[in-house]
Amino acid sequence: MAAPIRSALKKASFVLFYHGPRPPSAHRPVSNSPSPHSSPRPELIPAAQETVKATRAAHGKKSFGPVIVDQLYGGMRGLPALIWEGSVLDPDEGIRFRGKTIPEIQAALPKAPGGSEPLPEGLFWLLVTGEIPSQEQVTELSKDWAARAAIPDFVEEILDRCPPTLHPMSQFSLAVTALNHNSAFAKAYAEGINKREYWGPTFEDSMDLIAKLPNIAGRIYRNVYGTGKLPAIDLQKDYAYNLSTLLGFGENPAFVELMRLYITIHSDHEGGNVSAHAGKLVGSALSDPFLAYAAALNGLAGPLHGLANQEVLVWLTKMQSKLGEDASDDAVKEYVWSTLKGGQVVPGYGHAVLRKTDPRYIAQREFALKHLPEDKLFKLVAQVYKIVPNILLEAGKAKNPWPNVDAHSGALLTHYGLTQMQYYTVLFGVSRAFGVTAQLIWDRALGARECFPSFSSPPPLFLFLVRSRLSHDFSLGSDRNENSAGAPKVVLHGGDQRDVQGPELSVAGFERGGSCVGSLARVGSGRPRLGLQIKGNLVDVA
């Protein structure tokens, strides 16, 4: 295996895998994976670091785009802010993993023997290295993860002591956080590892994290829903097969294939979504991958992020219950209109970025057409797909009236008997670890800084907007108010005056809770004068 992967590494611009002994810098815990097959390759990381350094030196002061006030109040939506290596979301083509569309990765990534869906191991390899792996490379990665899969006894005990009423995502986050106890990165950092080597133990923690997620997810499922004793990991099987077996569905080849597809298409979706952003943000403080991904899971647990496929399934089953299993198109149209007229949205339709049908939806639809074309719930999903976009366009309710990934996944899981909707986000969480950890590895390799954006409270924001008016929209007046040098003054409430250094007024240091209102006039020299009434304390006017 060494020769093929070394050849692939020579072609890749950024690479992290090689076959051979682990470098000492990896700080590998001796208790895991006694026969590893995938490992960081440190000698090429400095070249990547120099590329970033040169790019910043040549272009670091160039603007990457404007910031508008709506983005400050609108959750930074659409604001280009950070680097994400693994994927990019194109409004017209959907997600691209290292430049490849979903149909391209479905065709190119290795498959399990007798299977037709891509193996998630191959997708992780692609995210980290930028290269399509060989069948042999993916097989070795499967074995590596299977060898690392055991979770510590104390983590098992934590999960076993959780009440079944505790939400599965709370248990998931709790267990992942507890894995920090054996973090290779935390140990290496405490021992004073050179910062240029941070990526090595980060890689090891990431491999361990991904490997252990099926055992955690399986234990949560069986504890909460009472489905019996957890079986052992099969060291010769792939990741999705073992996850399916731990959930109790491993004997159904179609469900295993669904899990291969599900994990692959949910693995990464750029860095702007809450879970990916949270993982990157917390990781930027040099928290180890376990802590960083626990933060990502807590974001994913929020109803605006990870609850969407449950909401779709609830909406569909309510419709099916009211209209019957073979509802007419007219009946479905009436139900959709009643949803909209009731002030609700049609769940699973529309997307913040996409302007076409989500390719992840299409991939799941094709799976359903192949494996469950007569399923009643799938038929309703297909019927809704035919009807809803035209209604949304007519109602003017969406820039993108097309379905996203969440419009389909719940129906597929339900078909195979995984009906516990509260658990669905756990599967999402297993999948999203691939993209978040791949980015953490590259953040450490390229020396990414701690995320520390600037924030604005309303008073400084108001004054910024006033400054814009000073430059572009003066009201005429005849009074003068200048100092002896001819510079304009700011007239404060109460009559006090402060000098300003020309028309570009800069105000800083309002106490929290302060507020201000202002009026504009033009002084005789043509320079602006700003009259402010201040509530709160003005600390500095420069």
TrEMBL record:
Residues 24-43, 477-499 are annotated as: Disordered. GO terms for cellular component: mitochondrial matrix. The active site is at H305, H351, D406. GO terms for biological process: carbohydrate metabolic process; citrate metabolic process; tricarboxylic acid cycle. Pfam families: Citrate_synt (PF00285). Residues 27-42 have a biased composition (Low complexity). PROSITE patterns: CITRATE_SYNTHASE. Signal peptide: none annotated. It comes from the Eukaryota. Belongs to the citrate synthase family. PANTHER family: CITRATE SYNTHASE (PTHR11739), CITRATE SYNTHASE, MITOCHONDRIAL (PTHR11739:SF8). This is Citrate synthase. It comes from Bondarzewia mesenterica.
